[in-house]
Amino acid sequence: MTRSTDPFVRIQDLAISYRTAQGRPPVHVVHDVSLQVELGQTLAIVGESGSGKSTVARTLLGYLRPGSFVRGGSVTVGGQDVFALKGPELRELRGGTVALVAQNAGQALTPSMRIGKQVAEALTVHGGAASDERVAELLDQVALPNRLARSYPHELSGGQQQRVAIAMAVAARPQALVLDEPTTALDVVTQAGVLRLLRDLSDELNAATLLVSHDLGVVAGMADDVLVMRDGRQVEYRPARELFAAPADDYTRMLLASAPRLTDDGLVEVTDDGTRRVRSRVDVRDTEALIRGSDVRVTYGRGSRAVHAVNGVDLEVRRGEVVALVGESGSGKSTLAWSVAGLTPPSGGALTYSGGAATDPEGTEVAEADLTKPVRRRPLGLRRRIQLVFQNADTALNPRLTVGTSIRRPLQLFRTARGKEKQRVGELLGQVELPAEFARRLPGQLSGGQRQRIGIARALAGDPTVIIADEITTALDVSVQASVLRLLDDIRRENRLACIFISHDLAVVRGIADRVLVMHDALVVEEGLTAAVFGNPRHPYTRELLSATLVVPDGASATAQGPSGDAEWVMQDPLAQAGSERTWKPDPDGAWEDHGDGHRSRAWLPVDAPSEHP
């Protein structure tokens, strides 16, 4: 790709390899990658896990993983050869000229140090003045109140932690920004606000920005140019509007087609050349209800310090049905699901299981069970019927146990395959489309998508009737995400499993869920069939979530053309509404409005409406 001006960032024919055992040839992980970024421009690098995108991006800071080396090519930032820099010059580059905003700010911040001190340290490292006024100015720049300077990282939300990391990154006013999956674990509203902040700061600093992301919606909203990578090689490198409107390579078309969209009325199956087919939904409205909840409440603390995490929610989940819980972080969706699982027992209301076949190993029938009891007080037959699949398979699996051992443990606990555990492990691996020999592998020898499949297999070991999937695709790239969702959908159809699906990705929810509950501030504010809620949202908070969701535009299929010939999405700013002031407030009376066919929304008031309640 040619430019009319000399770029601030230039990578030319970069090749990187990893050293292996003595006597063996090195493993080549990056092959002849070239890119350039001008000041004021944003280049996104996309591709599946293991494509080498983060490896390439972090070379701007002169960083290579242990055991790796540059086999050929060059990395130049501001006219300096990065890998020729030593000592003080390299330290000046890192943070002074090039700043990194990484994926997990919670791990990047020092837990025992107050926020203000960490921001001040970022200033002094590069010779800046670390006054209280300058710290307050940086916090204000990332839309955080100065009072948080005295807080510790654990006292902040994920979005606030990410904003602190951004404040530290821009403290020395760098000329280049490396954004490595900066919003992966954030809910859509927080993500939109953080992305808008990053874009505004990039414009203010006139920085050359390199964005690494597996979220193609984020890329569509942020990037001027896009570099697609696969197996360490360049696949396609073009302006974003051209690539999204008419991708030239089959792999790019497959990636774009795999990304879920708010217009998909069902899960999408994608062929290698990018052809999309939406699979039809299964009608489960007449099946029996397995989970029933009425006025469910979960409260932490007592008296004036009590925090209502769930504040009077009605819930029903039918056999074979996927019910999605969506909302911002802290809305109560995970707490509600964990109450069903018995990890966070309700403090009020009724919650029951009516599976009819939750027999424990001794033959005792559990026809109807009280789910307000903690999991340790539930019969074994009931415990095995409600299973969880966690968000982060890396931490959910013991790294020192083989895959076979991890799956065998619930089989032994629930005694569901007496004397046939090894055979059953192989069957479960086959059910999640993995070969039986994976039983001998350790989690570290598997990809992220394979580890998530192991998590699903382990949950299926108890022969459940209800699966709770808590953000199971958050950290996965789009193609792996699509395969995991298809697998989950296949399993629930074959086994008539009920599923409580928690996600902040509304495009994913649109494809897999039969019904959706929108939660805000511990309450359900809207619920109904997914098509009704997404097609005609009645509560302003639901509309807020939908408007904040960044998705791959329909223009990617070159079906929607504007007057200039560009796809329609190019003519609009997808982050235009991010951070805008809320024009509504909850109605203290909390009355429901019925819109028919199970679709209802909670009453709300304009912000300027007088309240009769103190």
TrEMBL record:
Keyword Membrane in annotation: no
Organism of derivation: Tessaracoccus oleiagri
Record protein name field: Peptide/nickel transport system ATP-binding protein
Start-end of Basic and acidic residues biased regions: 582-600
GO BP term (any one): peptide transport
Signal peptide (from-to): none
Record region (Disordered): 556-614
Pfam families according to UniProt: ABC_tran, oligo_HPY
